[in-house]
Amino acid sequence: MSFLTDIWRSQAVSRALRRAHALVGQKRYPEAIRILTKANCHLHSSAIEILLVNLRHDSFFHHVATSSLASWPPQPDDLYADQLGIPEIDHQDFTATNVASGVFNHGSIIVRNMLTAEQVSLMRDSVIQTHAHHDKAIAGALETETAPWFVPFTPTPREGTKAIVEREWLRRTGAELAADSPRGLFNLINCLQDAGITDMVTEYLGEQPALSVRKTALRQALKDVNAEVGWHQDGAFLGQGIRTVNVWIALTDCGVDAPSMDMVPRRLTTIVPTGTEGAMFDWSVSELTARDAAGDTPPVRLQFREGDAIIFDEMNLHRTGESLGMTKDRFAVEAWFFAPSCYPLEQLPIMV
Ligand SMILES: O=C(O)CCC(=O)C(=O)O
């Protein structure tokens, strides 16, 4: 980059930051976020990306949440009654009606070709960079050396919110918090928007959604069996009265020689017993209980091509699908959206 281009760029970044701060001073968070996002698409600035993570969180507390849905859960018609197992659609049929029909009648729905090859490559690189820069931080690198790929998110303490404490454990399970990666989160939110996911979720939840810092992850599942989680329903620890949907997207082919997801292919309407003999945690589910809950629809190991997605919610019973002898790591992103009108604050909101 030439000296003049450098000067022009840093002036443009300062201008965008000044405008955003002025808007935030007037509590106009959505406009500040829009301006910074637009500017950053060509400026790729660490300072903008870090500010965006914080503004997306703070903006939740200035957002007046209203839902267009009087009750929850909805009871959509079963459009997939004639399909065995988990229903599958292609990206061209990705609508809130189809997704709700799959999730509320069958527990989940697979969407093939959710992301383009270019989006997959951008997100896979984001996962790799985030892990690598977190490693540098662990080895003692300063934040200025790990930004914009790894800058631990530290939310302003507020009543009902919770400091993040599980980074070490998450990392052992192959997950990085997307909010710890200002550039990774920027790329993720753009991909979610460009693929039509944010619009679909807005219609599905009946309001502009918020992601969760604690549940939105950039994942690298290692080929050597290492999952420390086991069978679980996220509803066992997310709390009652929530409205949520998770979009999990494979960034590499998986399910044969790389870890994938194992899933009970049916809609469960209750939280099954947790912490029974053989379960790894008090919130996870033993093999025996999972098989019991599955009944005549036994768990399946899912196979995905890169860019395929599966969508489910807090009632779904699943685990990382891994076996001894797998030869490849698997990359994925996991985006948990919640309805702001009944948001569990300890999950730490990020407006999208
Ligand atoms: O990616 C994985 O292996 C696990 C993901 C998961 O448990 C989830 O999306 O809730």
Protein architecture, described:
- The chain has 352 residues and is of the alpha+beta class.
- It has a single domain (68-351), classed as q2cbj1_9rhob like domain (Jelly Rolls), CATH 2.60.120.620.
- The chain is built from eleven helices and twelve strands.
- The strands form two sheets. Strands 1, 2, 3, 4, 5, 6, 9, 11 and 12 form a nine-stranded mixed β-sheet that branches.
- β1, α4 (96-106) and β2 (108-112) form a beta-alpha-beta unit.
- α2 packs antiparallel against α3 (46-60).
- It is globular.
- The chain binds 2-oxoglutaric acid.
- Residues 219, 221, 234, 246, 248, 261, 318, 320, 332, 334 line the site of 2-oxoglutaric acid (AKG).
- GO terms for molecular function: metal ion binding; oxidoreductase activity.
- InterPro entries: Phytyl_CoA_dOase-like (IPR008775).
- Pfam families: PhyH (PF05721).
Residue stretches low in confidence (pLDDT < 50, at least 5 long) are none
CATH architecture: Sandwich
The separation of the N and C termini measures 32 Å
Total domains, how many? 1
Q: Indicate the structural class.
A: alpha+beta
CATH class identity: Mainly Beta
GO molecular function: metal ion binding; oxidoreductase activity
InterPro entries: Phytyl_CoA_dOase-like (IPR008775)
Pfam families: PhyH
